[in-house]
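This entry is listed as follows:

___
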Amino acid sequence: MNKWLIGILVVIVLLGIWSVGVYNGLVGKDQEVKQSWAQVENQLQRRYDLIPNLVETVKGYATHEKELFENVAAARSAWAGAKNSTERINAANQVEGVLGRLLAVVESYPQLKASENFRALQDELAGTENRIAVARMRYNDMVQSYNVTAKSIPTVFVVRLFGFDHEKIFFAAPGEAKEAPKVKF
């Protein structure tokens, strides 16, 4: 009788140790995803801080592009008003599309393209876009690692038991970025 009781206690203790290990692993992966997302937000905020300077520079040359400037302001407002990561991802993709159109408009103004101030801002924006791409890639790597772990058996039972997210959201590129640019000669 005592052997059965000792055996049951050993199994319970082993299950408890295993659960603590899995729980701690999930907490670590969850924190890695949050830290990666914070880095993405830092780089996105850097982009949004550059946009007003870029818009003001372009406004000086392209005064009749009012609708475009309004779209830029609306996209920045959407970013500022986003309450969760899904809304922020959508807002970031919206800003990315508007910025692309803004930079396309610049092509029509050779004097603007030659402006030293504009070129400096464009270089700063290009550097920021590269940082965003790297931060986005790292975030998506962390999300993939979390999702694989959270959906694996038997970890999925611990996820459900302790209320972890079943799946984290990837930061996908906007739809326009998936199409190859058309080059005309």
